[in-house]
Amino acid sequence: MAKFNIFLLIVCIGCAIGVVTSQHRARTLYTELQEEQDRSRQFDVEWGQLQLEQSTWATHARIEKIAVEKLRMQAPQHAPQAGPLQMVPGRSETR
Amino acid sequence: MKPPANPAMSAVSLRLPIGRSHFLFALIGFWFAALLLRALYLQGLQNDFLQQKGESRYARVLSISAHRGVISDRNNELLAISTPLESIWVSPAEVRLSAADRSRLVKLLGLDSIEINRRLADTSREFLYLKRHVSPERAATIAALKIPGVFSQREYKRFYPAGEELAHVIGFTGMDDNGQEGLELAYQDSLAGKPGSRQVIKDRRGHIIEQVGSQRAPVNGEDLALSIDRRIQYLAHRELKAAVAANHARAGAAIVLDVKTGEVLAMANVPTYNPNNRGKLDRDRTRNRAITDLFEPGSTLKPFTVAAVLEAGAFNADSVIDVAPGWLRIGRATIRDAHRHDALTVAQVIQKSSNVGSVKLALSLPPQALWDIFHDVGFGVPPSSGFPGEAAGKLRAHKSWKPIEHATMSYGHGISVSLLQLARAYTVFAADGRLKPVSLIKLDAKSGPVEGRRVLSPETAKAVREMLETVVQPGGTALKAQIMGYRVAGKTGTAHKAENGSYAARRYISSFVGFAPASDPRLVVAVMIDEPNAGQHFGGAVAAPVFSSVMSGALRMLSVAPDAPAGSDAQDILPPDDETIAIKEEI
Question: Looking at domain B230-275+287-584, which of 3.40.50.2300, 3.60.21.10, 3.40.710.10, 2.60.40.2470 is its CATH number?
Answer without folding.
Answer: 3.40.710.10
